[in-house]
Write a structure and sequence with these properties.
Distance between the termini: 19 Å
CATH architecture: 3-Layer(aba) Sandwich
EC number: 1.1.1.153
Number of strands: 7
Main location: cytoplasm
CATH superfamily: NAD(P)-binding Rossmann-like Domain
Helix content: 40-55%
Strand content: 15-25%
Largest sheet: 7 strands, parallel
Order of helices and strands: EHEHEHEHEHEHHHE
Family: Belongs to the sepiapterin reductase family.
GO molecular function: sepiapterin reductase (NADP+) activity
Number of helices: 8
Subunit structure: Homodimer.
Bound molecules: NADP nicotinamide-adenine-dinucleotide phosphate
Structural class: alpha/beta
């Protein structure tokens, strides 16, 4: 992935956790003048912090922040953000979207207990519908230039995990959307990666450890945190960059942190 080219980079959930680290690390590597970085999340102050760090590392970049709740966001919101964030620049040679924002849902409930359709609607809107809507606007806006589409996936998208009926189902649906996209849109014009980052020390894993109904799941998270085998956001971002540099994956593949980068 050539970040020497004039790049448009959009990261959702850039206010903290993995999204913040991805945004910072990728921005650091963007070299071309006129490149634009767009950071989405709900917390404007935290987005501004991410922006400040990026500009300290790379003052030439144009960095835009937009506070937006993905639980209610609509296609028009994404269309507006994509339009306004390009006002200061045009003629990008590459566009990258990192669909990172996500929530773990209610892990205190068993699969047989999650039938509240109001909750499900909001949860699916946040984690699936908004990602699809943003992606459609992104594909439309950047038709004709090379695009990298990254979905933050997880082992839970491909394996059932007790306490995680909400999370497993949205992650499976979201990953399948991006796999279908990859079958329809030819690489290298559109390159799709479902990246599973491993188990990372963020607010999300703290929440699971606090709330999961299954004691075995709580114990597993606690053990990994206490033994410091849980990864840092920096470690998984480093691996993600290696995966991109090696480019051994086929468009649409699910690549896990633990997979060997080289065959
Ligand atoms: N941590 C792990 O071990 C792990 C493992 C596998 C996959 N993942 C995936 O990696 C991604 C990031 O996870 P993380 O651990 O970094 O989580 P995190 O620390 O909880 O951060 C989640 C990010 O998503 C944003 N977000 C949450 N709800 C939102 C909403 N309604 N509207 C807009 N933005 C929202 C948050 O920003 P605001 O609060 O500012 O809105 C925040 O920036 C997720 O997709 C997750 O499923 C994580």
């Amino acid at each position: 992935m050539d970040l020497k080219q004039k790049t448009y980079l959009l990261v959702t959930g850039a206010s903290r956790g993995i999204g913040r680290e991805f945004a910072q690390q990728l921005s650091q590597r963007i070299e071309a003048l006129g490149s634009v970085v767009v950071l989405l999340g709900r917390s404007q102050p935290l987005l501004e912090e991410t922006k400040g760090t990026i500009l300290k590392q790379n003052p030439e970049l144009s960095v835009h922040t937009y506070a937006l709740d993905l639980a209610t966001a609509r296609s028009e919101d994404f269309a507006r953000i994509l339009k306004y964030s390009q006002v200061s620049s045009a003629d990008f040679q590459r566009a990258i979207v990192i669909h990172n924002a996500g929530t773990v849902g209610d892990t205190s409930k068993r699969a047989r207990e999650i039938g509240d359709t109001e909750y499900l609607q909001e949860y699916y809107h946040t984690n699936v519908f908004s990602a699809i809507a943003l992606n459609c606007e992104f594909m439309r806006t950047f038709a004709g230039i090379p695009k990298l589409v990254v979905n933050l996936s997880t082992l839970a998208a491909i394996a059932p995990i007790s306490s995680m009926a909400h999370y497993c189902t949205v992650k499976a649906a979201r990953e399948m959307y991006f796999r279908v996209l990859a079958t329809e849109e030819p690489a290298p014009d559109t390159l799709v990666l479902n990246y599973a980052p491993g188990m990372i020390d963020t607010q999300m894993t703290e929440q699971v450890q606090r709330e999961a109904h299954d004691p075995a799941v709580v114990a597993m998270f606690r053990e990994q945190r206490e033994s410091k085998t849980m990864l840092t956001t920096a470690q998984t971002t480093q691996r993600f960059l290696q995966v991109l540099a090696a480019q051994r994956f086929q468009s649409g593949d699910h690549v896990d942190y633990r997979d060997p980068v080289e065959p």
